[in-house]
Design brief:
Length: 232
């Protein structure tokens, strides 16, 4: 991995937004379209706001999420709502957005959505991930029953459903295999605790220990194609 450190979170958000905007605009210039997937949660909010002010031909953009909670679209825990409020609603002209979850979504509909993403979005030009204090990324949590499938670099599907007993709702997540297809792969982290966890994950990888945290699989499989953006 490549690590970029910033003095503070405002600078991190601004400079990452400039970098991502440049990557997206380069994609538009070369192929007349671009696609991106962004993490939810609270960490990327400053980045979303900074990105919304960048000079990108948003009409050529297809945007989706790396993962979503199975909640109503207007629920306070909806990643789609967070993305809309902090990025999508501010884009002129608007970008095309593809949600990952709708109420009552069936396994067949999820498979159809995976196929649509494969055809219309992939390979993604840009992915910006986050990481939890438990080492999860997207919604690939340490104790998910199907975590092995989600972390399998040869997993054939874009999406999978994640259910973990101590989470308040089920999730929809992109698989590691899907995320690794991105042309530009970024990980946005803040706080000393997350940096320490990342360093511990690197130490475990160097010692060839079994994977303990999902982030280890990302670091192992992505290698130097992953850029980590850290601010205290």
């Amino acid at each position: 991995m490549n690590l970029v450190s910033y003095a503070d979170r405002a600078l991190q958000a601004e400079q990452l937004a400039q970098l991502v905007a440049s990557e997206l605009q380069q994609a538009v210039a070369s192929q007349d379209k671009a696609s991106a997937a962004f993490a939810g949660g609270t960490t990327p909010v400053l980045f979303f706001k900074a990105l919304s002010k960048q000079a990108v031909d948003w009409s050529k953009l297809r945007i989706t999420l790396t993962d979503e909670r199975q909640v109503e679209p207007n629920h306070e825990r909806s990643n789609a709502l967070l993305l809309t409020n902090n990025l999508l609603a501010n884009l002129q002209p608007p970008a095309h957005f593809q949600a990952l979850y709708q109420l009552g979504q069936t396994a067949t509909e999820l498979a159809s959505l995976s196929l649509n993403l494969q055809q219309q979005f992939f390979p993604l030009d840009v992915v910006v991930l986050g990481m939890g204090n438990d080492g999860h990324f997207a919604s690939l949590f340490p104790h998910a029953p199907n975590l092995a499938a989600g972390l399998d670099p040869d997993y054939p599907d874009i999406l999978l459903e994640i259910r973990v007993a101590d989470l308040p709702e089920a999730r929809i997540s992109m698989s590691l295999a899907a995320l690794l297809q991105a042309k530009h792969l970024h990980l946005l982290i803040t706080g000393a605790d997350k940096k320490q966890l990342l360093e511990q994950a690197q130490t475990r990888i160097a010692a060839r220990l079994p994977v303990q945290w999902p982030i280890e699989a990302l670091l192992q499989q992505a290698g130097d194609s992953l850029t980590v953006h850290y601010a205290p």
